Amino acid sequence: MLGVHPGILIMLVLLISAFISPVLDQFKFKKFSFLATFVSGIVFVLSVLVIFRVNSIGVEYYNFGGWTPDKGIEFVFSELEALILLLVSGMFFIIYLYNQKKIREEISEHLRGWYFTLAFMLQASLIGLILTNDLFNMFVFIEISALTTVAIISINENKDTVFASIKYLFLTAVGSSSVLFSTGLIYLLTGYLNMELAGMELMEVAGMYPAATSMAMLFMFFGLAMKSALFPLHIWLPDAYYSAPTISTAIMAGLVGKAYIVVFIKVFYRVLPLSFFEQTNMSEIAIVMAGMAIIIGSLFAISQTKIKRMLAYSSVAQIGYIFLGITLATESSITGGFLHIVNHSIIKTLLFLTVGVIIIYTGAENIVDFKGIGKKYPLTMGLFALSALAMIGIPPLNGFISKWTIAIGTIEAEKPLYLIIIILSSLLNAVYYLPIIIQAFFGGDDDLEYDWEFKRLGFKIILPMLTLGVLILIIGIFPAKPINYINRIVSILI
Predict the structure, then answer these.
(1) Which pTM value belongs to this model?
(2) What's in the GO CC field (predicted)?
(3) Which of 130, 222, 349, 398 is deepest in the core (most CB within 10 A)?
């Protein structure tokens, strides 16, 4: 199309859209939600073209300005990048479809033009993070995504959002500094910022400079773990998820953290020597942190009284599953971790969209207020129940498949303790999800009166949630294709 690679066209479409939004705002343009849906639809179609292109042509490299990889910025389009690009584009499209009249009223009308400028920039930075093959360019995209995320949290300028955004900004700045320091060390060691060239050079020099290589690895791990909210570096996450508008929370929970985890995979499997990671016992530390995240995140979730905070702590536990799979470093565990990135993105986005509807239409923020709500909103709470069961890991839903694959990875890695942790965590998931489902459908009297007026949901709000529900079922019932695709990615990584 236009002689430009569809992946590059995606960046152009998003950046142009980001710059024209404030201009349109000056002309009293009111259809920003439609514009966002239209733009994200184009981006999604282009992402589909990218994945077809990778499947037919193979890995492609795009060098900006014709510079060679050792001097210029390079994007890479392999099966890994194509899959995550499709995930990010698809989820943004679904979230924008969901952003109908009553939902978008969460954001003040005079700020909506700027909101979508920030959202387009955030989407562009996340896609840039996924596609770039350059370490410094990766840092630049990390900074853009951090600043735009802060802005979409604090867009409503109330006390909670400002507090959450300052907390996020401070902690994410620590993480960014750590990534930058590590990038500098890698450049000093290798003379390259290109990931593949730096990775090949590090294989040669890591043994000669073990202390510097270990420092680079440590700072990169700390920075990306902070960005991904791996326990105990997750402390920015609950306040950010709780206070942000619904679509901001859905974007953060479903996509932002996942992009950093994908960067973690690219850096630790393509740049920094995996064998060195294991020799320095950092892999053991990462595995222990992941195990603690799974258990402690679940325990914190049980103790919450606000539904959005409960889902936030549930995310801490699920991020632990993903890191466990990645850092156990067996073929099954990495496949499971990768699949859980996709599955958790779908499941957690659906959970926040359903809860967002309930909060906006009924004002029920406390878990106890969900009593009987399933009788008024059966489809919405039915989808909540479906996604909660997937999160627990009930077969044949998609969450079961990824957890099962990670569990096989724990056996391959000869770490049965983590198999027990996975089983225990699933039971803990059931402890905080099942009572909500039971109370929503069977709690309260049939003639129970509420202090809110029932309003029927429009089809435009239901459709995106229903789409995510169908995806949960399809991936769970027919897992062979996604697993085979991810297996091809994993076979290249290890």
Answers:
(1) 0.94
(2) plasma membrane
(3) 398
